[in-house]
Amino acid sequence: xxxxxxxxxxxxxxxxxxxxxxxxxxxxxxxxxxxxxxxxxxxxxxxxxxxxxxxxxxxxxxxxxxxxxxxxxxxxxxxxxxxxxxxxxxxxxxxxxxxxxxxxxxxxxxxxxxxxxxxxxxxxxxxxxxxxxxxxxxxxxxxxxxxxxxxxxxxxxxxxxxxxxxxxxxxxxxxxxxxxxxxxxxxxxxxxxxxxxxxxxxxxxxxxxxxxxxxxxxxxxxxxxxxxxx
Length: 230
Fold this sequence. Notes:
Layout lengths: L1 E6 L7 E5 L3 E4 L6 H9 L7 E3 L2 E2 L5 H7 E4 L12 H8 L8 H7 L15 H15 L3 E5 L7 H11 L7 E6 L2 H7 L2 E6 L2 E6 L1 H4 L2 H8 L3 E4 L2 E4 L2
Parallel strand pairs: 3-8, 3-9, 6-7, 7-8
Antiparallel strand pairs: 1-2, 1-4, 4-5, 9-10, 11-12
Helix pairs in contact: 3-5, 4-5
């Protein structure tokens, strides 16, 4: 599905990955995980990434749109008059899988369809970005910190969607939220100081011995939750 072959920069060092299923890229702030996402999607130009066996240069514009979609953590709208509904309409790139009203209802945005995107709160903006990812419905969707601006109720809504097989094809999620990653149970890529410190199953990563290796005594698993050991 997706490969990174020996990519290095001032931030990332000797990155090689073969991603074949839903994956979470974990790491502390500044570890390089968002940079890796931008490398994968091609925002940072490179010839080290292959998507469906093609490099970014080999993919046509149409193929790129169909194969991969990057959802940033923050909504940036350059049209000051664009409404929520218009933003979602522009997200469709092929035969719609969902209707606008269905997406709005799924993310609790029904009452905001006519609102200007620039009037949304940070949490509402993040839900709009999530809704746009379903509208786009690329083969691989990369979501950068999809819950960073959400309260607990909205985080649960996003978790349920990401945890379902009914939405999105393949997901790569960038996060520093250990408990969110633990609950999803996807494969883990752990980035530490710009290097891949771990790539494997969630079950292996969250073993107590691995938790102590990477986090010392600062975190522990209690009753099926990852908690800070204060």
